[in-house]
Amino acid sequence: MDLAADNMAKLVDHGRRVLHAAMSAPDPAETTSELALNAADATRTLGAVVEAWMKNPQRAAGAQAELTQGLGAIWTQTLRRLSGEKAEPVVPVDPSDKRFAAPEWKDSPFFDFLRQSYSHTTQWADNMVERAEGLDPMTRSKAAFYTRLISSAISPSNFVATNPELLRATIDARGGNLVRGLEMLAEDLKAGGGTLKIRQTDQSKFELGVDMATTPGKVVFRNDVMELIQYAPTTEEVLARPLLIVPPWINKFYVLDLNREKSFVRWAVDQGLTVFIISWVNPDSSQAELSFPDYMRRGVLAAIDAIEAATGEKRVSAAGYCVGGTMLATTLAYLAATGEERVQSATLFATQVDFTHAGDMQIFVDKDKLAALEEAMAKTGYLDGVKMANTFNVLRPNELVWNYIVNNYVKGETPSAFDLLAWNADSTRIPRANHSFYLRNCYLENNLARGKLRIDGVTLDLKKVTIPIYEIAAREDHIAPARSVFLGAKLFGGPVEYVLAGAGHVAGIINPPVKHKYQYWRGGPPRGELEDWIKNTQEVKGSWWPNWIEWYKSQAPEKVPARWPGEGGLKAICDAPGEYVRVKA
Questions:
Q1: What positions does the domain Poly-beta-hydroxybutyrate polymerase N-terminal occupy (predicted)?
Q2: Quick one: CATH architecture of 217-384+429-582?
């Protein structure tokens, strides 16, 4: 009893700290306004689903009967179990759903009833959205997202009273788990400046340059937008044409150099490439006016100039990942429009240039939400990294939100060390001007695909991009959906090799051959619909990297003696991974 009373006192104390941390946000009214805007949008969207069903009362009554009949069957099955009979569940346990892995979810009639009722109701809700007639694609997509979000939040696995595993842990620890959980919650709210920065891994186990981003190299160029890293060769000869990698600026570049075993950069160097990569600045309020065109001019184009100074090569090959790929495609269109031939071939990793079917991220971008976001960014000069990370997290609420809320803040467990999640948690800020331009011109107005994007008075047309392109999409990608990437790949005017990888936005791209994981499909240029293209493809087990390097080398097979960073026309500034990547959001 003394331990329980002591833990109760600690709960009260930590509860105060949580409240204080939550109220420490720079502008609590802004958070309230954002929540109100999202709630209003969810209400409108789900209201449209209800309205669609009510247009056919008979059909709506049938759907309602499906729900009540299913719940009735679950209740009857539970009563039979309580009376000692053996009765098969109406909704069997899904072995892939880790939320209900504890044996009590199946063995206890009470918890089995909760699980089945929840599963049946949420499946029914998903079906209601899917089967609603007359909804436009965007409304249906948003309704499916909000339904998933609500379903994840109300799961009985999230609460002590309705989760046997949490109940047992709390009783055994006499509430000590809740004390530890509240302590971590207060720490994570403080770390996010009043916004919850969910702790997904033990970041103390990783150090840049030691455990992550370890490929040897030097920063050979730096300006206010980026650092340019040149990596040290591991072969006596290298391909004459250097490779410039343009990573996204919404995350840090070292997802491509995660560790020795998972590094695309190290692997490319080992294949005989001279690899350069951009490390974007983590901006502060003084850099609010850095725009998308600035990132092109002082990022990609400045990097190409620096590579020429370092190696003597006027022309490069380039690769872009996610929004970095969108930036690269924009740069290619700009170079084509201005008659420059600085980039001779391009690789696009999970890159969208047509945002018609841009996936779940479209949910967060409409005129009202963009106006509210621009108003918030005007106060700070940037989009905070925690907000960007949380946006990606809610796209997979079970895995990236509630899993950690339950384990961290209810069970009181410290998450294990995982390199990919450590990178994911190492968020970065985005300048106001850049982010506003990107969201408005790509997600909202789709100007790049429509041939209406203008930079420095130049109208950009992707059809004028005639260099060879290797376009890799990921089949389970919810950020840059394969269908969206496929559609955009048709807009280029030259030869495009479209390849579809297994897995998602990160795992599908960062898939070293040594792991022998996943698969990819190759079928040549993107023609027709994606589904038809897939039917005519060849499935290959394992990583797509060997296929890519074969394509890459065929573009320019000439070789030269290996180049060492700092020994060419540019002197080394510091060791890789540089200074910009170490700045915390």
A1: 97-268
A2: 3-Layer(aba) Sandwich (3.40)
